[in-house]
Structures are given as structure tokens and as C-alpha cells.
Amino acid sequence: MAIAAYGPLESEDGAQRFEIEALRPAKDHFVVRLAGIGDRDAAERLTNIKLYVSRDRLPPIDDDGTFYHADLVGLAAVMPDGNPLGTVTAVHNFGAGDIIEIKPAAGGSPLMVPFTATAVPEIDIAAGRLVVVRPTDIE
Predict the structure, then answer these.
(1) Phi/psi zone of residue 41: left (φ > 0), alpha (ψ -120 to 50 degrees), beta?
(2) Considering all CA atoms of the chain, what is the largest pairwise distance in Å, rounded to the nearest integer?
(3) pTM
(4) Are 111 and 86 a contacting pair, CB within 8 Å?
(5) pLDDT digits over 58-76, tens only?
(6) Domains of the chain, with CATH numbers?
(7) Confidence at residue 138, expressed as pLDDT on a 0 to 100 scale
């Protein structure tokens, strides 16, 4: 619900801005009325547009164990023994939980790692790294 206080939302390319006029919770989602979107047809044309809030309008984080997903992108991913694994390139959620995408240091296809305490036991934003235990290494 706090999103309504962050100000205008923007499309991914920044070309469109949307003001929230009303926001209410529904069963498993939110229902929003946007300024200038007066009917169902206009609303349907916005289907699948990703909306963003400028980082500078988000509340600051004071807790060391708390971060925004965007803070993970660019971190070095290392194995528990310190050997480099790659670089975090994205955090996804396809409906079953967060997944970290890692571009391997050695090249090749991206690694998709569940973002769980077992698979990612350590995150150190200040040091610019996180530790990854690959599923094949979990006992």
C-alpha cells in the first residue's frame, strides 16, 4: 500500500508517468485507479506495462540485513571457499519464489539460483558480494 505515497510511477523507458488516484487491496492483488485512465479499454491498453518508482523516492534502509533487490544486481557471486562464480545480473520471480540470475565468470549460460538462505547463505552489500551454494553442492 505504501506505493501510493511514492509519487508518480513510470514506464520502464520513462516515457509514461502514472499518478495513483486510488488504491485498495483485493483477494491476492491490488486494484488501482490511475489519473487519466477513465475506462476499461484505456486500462486494458496498459496490460503488462511494467511500472517503476525512482530509487530516490523509496524509503532509506537502516538495517544491515535489509536491501532492495536492485542492490543485488552487480554483486560478485562467490562460492563458499571464495572462488568466483560470476556476477548477479537479475533477480526474478516467476511465481514460486525469488531466483538470482548469475552470469558465470567462466562464460556460458546464466546460472539460476533459488534466493533462499540455503543457496545464498551470505549477502554483504558493503563488500559487493554474496556467497552461493550451488544445488549440486548442498548436502
Answers:
(1) alpha
(2) 57
(3) 0.73
(4) yes
(5) 888 888 778 899 999 999 9
(6) 2-57 (no CATH), 69-137 (2.30.30.240)
(7) 53
